[in-house]
Amino acid sequence: MTRPYKSVSGTIFDACNYLFLGAFALAAVLPFLYIIAGSFASDAELTERAVFLIPETFTFAAYEYIFSTDTLLRSIGVSVFVTVVGTAFNLFFTVTMAYPLARRALVGRNLLLNLVIFPMLFSGGMIPMYLVIRELHLLDSLWALILPGAINSFNLIIVKNFFQELPPELEEAAKIDGCTDLGLLWKIVLPLSKPVLATFTLFYAVSHWNSFFDALLYINDPSKWPLQVMLRQIVMLSQSAAGDLYNMDPSFVKPPDQSIKMAVIVVGTIPILLVYPFLQKHFAKGVMIGSVKG
Amino acid sequence: MTGKDQQHSILTRMRREKWMYVLLIPGLLYFLIFKYVPMWGALLAFKNYQPFLGFFKSEWVGFEHFRVFFANPEFGMLLSNTLMLSFLNMVFFFPAPIILALLLNEVRLALFKRTIQTLIYVPHFIPMVIVASLTYVFLTTEGGIVNEYLYKWTGQKIDFLSQPDWFRPIIILQTIWKECGWGTIIFLAALAAVDVEQYEAAIMDGANRWKQIWHITLPSISSTIVILLILRMGNVLDNGFEQIYLMLNPLNRSVAEVFDTYVYMVGITQGAFSYSTAVGLFKSIVGIILVLGTNWLAKRFGHSGLY
User: Fold this and answer.
1) Which of A258, A221, A237, A193 is nearest to A61 (CA)?
2) What is the per-residue pLDDT across B107-131, written as a single tens digit (0 to 9) for each?
3) How much is the pTM?
4) pLDDT (tens digit, 9 = 90+) per residue, A40-72?
5) Is there a single domain that holds both residue A122 and residue A195?
6) GO CC terms for this protein (chain A) (predicted)?
7) Cα–Cα distances in angstroms (integers) from residue B136 to residues A76, A238, B127, B142, B161, in the given order
8) Which residue among A35, A127, A212 places its CB closest to the CB of B273?
9) Is residue A105 part of a domain?
């Protein structure tokens, strides 16, 4: 939008505004830049120089240490598995439910919609959910991290709204050409929904990668911990990254705690920072589809 | 509905769309098992659940667990901690994205605006564990950068992570850092819909930047603000379980323990299933009353409301 306006106070306002916004944006990313730099720095440098973005004594010691046993690698494996399989489940469950709900003529549609909306207002709570998972014998199983979150109700409604906005003429034309209901979904609706599906693929994937609490609740076996739980053990509870120190090469010099913690944080964040540029292209649009149309 | 449709009975219409119902099966099973069964399981709050007896054979105790909970001195602490965090969030966090969106809206350099937006959205995607970890690494007294500087300048260190006084400021700052940028999206969408001619007319009338913001921009996003306020009111008792849980420790418990963390502690770690279900149920019900209540209020004051 262009608004013609020039005055001294307006210019001062603009200058302050740009400075403030710039500072805010820096505050959003600076902690990471520091942590990345710190993870490559030496013990002495971390305490002496304090603030820096390029370490003088560049070393991989912290990374060598955290990958010296397979504890961390195994938890990365768990996180990758849960993210990939979980997201596939999310998409399947969300799309198969959203598509019928998007049909205005479907008998029982209102009842079904209310069935979806009510749990957004009221839920059984943590303990009944825990007991359900236990009764299903899913405790200590990675399925406990995948199945209970197979559909996010908000996402479901946004996808449903998007399907509903597709021009009905397309559907009619395809039907006249002999397309079945399922063929319609597969050949017409899904290809047209690529931007929305991409957005939710990424949203679901990020939430699986980030999730911590469900693993804390349902997974007791440390060998099945996803990365976030492992990260907390190492950074916040100061447990050894390597787990069993006895098996370690005695010649291995243990790098400073701070830089180990920083390296673990970097490992936990990098996948997000890698997908972020792709994510960013889509999400504003995806969120608007949901928020503006309701 | 067309005349032709009306001729069909409901059954014929359902049969014609049978594949739609087949598609619905996985989703419905999901909702049944993972949403509605736990709702029914909330009845445990009125039973004395014994694992070896199971749900059905455990005896009914009515409101006994609720009575015990309300009589527990912890109840007052949980309620005040929960409300205090919500209040602070409402005062400090809620306006932050609105202000940020208003400021972003005043930027005319498209490239600058896009760059800033790209950067301020990043923290939203960062897991809470990482946010808490960053807080630990920065604030710890053992080599944390903040304390290293404090020590250089004042000769003292502050144990931010275990002093109760620092708990609330840290939580609020974390929330602002993580979600403030992301929160601007919805307001920017609302702002993009404002008619530019209104500004032109206001400028002709001699309105300066502040007056334009006050008289045009803010009123035009007020309905968005009200809707989000309602949503937030409904979640007054939800303080972000993960965040609190991660920052909670025995030393700051007096200000940090909230309903959700308490449910986890007595339910999962101590095995008091029925009692903690009662605590959770109390929280859910108050939450619903708050949502419906604020929605009703919003409607009375002439806003459209949510439902």
Assistant:
1) A258
2) 989 899 989 999 999 999 999 999 9
3) 0.86
4) 887 777 767 666 777 778 888 889 888 888 889
5) yes
6) plasma membrane
7) 22, 11, 14, 10, 7
8) A127
9) yes
